[in-house]
Amino acid sequence: MINFLPAKVATDAYPGDIKGDSLEKTVSDLEAFAKEFPRALVPQRILLTITTGEKFDALIKKYLHRGLKKNIPSLFVDIKPLYKDDAKRERIQYIVEDYRVELEAKKASNADGERVPFSSLHIF
Predict the structure, then answer these.
(1) Which residues of the chain are modeled with pLDDT < 50?
(2) How far is CA 106 from CA 34, 102, 110, 118, in A?
(3) Which residues neighbour 93 within 8 Å (Cβ) at sequence distance 6 or greater?
(4) What's the Cα-to-Cα distance from 17 to each of 21, 42, 49, 102, rounded to whole Å?
(5) Which of 86, 94, 4, 87 is nearest to 46 (CA)?
(6) What pLDDT, on the 0 to 100 scale, is given for residue 98?
(7) pLDDT at 3
């Protein structure tokens, strides 16, 4: 069973507030919670707030692709607070642009009339 996170982490998650071993423990707890409850978006979203670097890249790509494929209209409102960090904003832009190129390539290769995902509307 997973121990509940301290209230500070759950409400005011910010990379500057959680440091060192505490950050690693929090990340591992949130990952375990997200794995146990894969449809719960809150632990995934908090992970995006407190992680950086390659870990953030992997998590945001999965989060964005899932949201775009499911056509969640509030996806970009949800991740808007991440734009405060320039590095995260650049990674988000890169991933969304890359996904748009993927969809355009898929659209171009669909000569047989197969439908392209509706998520392309959210990206354009």
Answers:
(1) 1, 7-13
(2) 31, 6, 6, 12
(3) none
(4) 12, 18, 11, 37
(5) 4
(6) 93
(7) 53
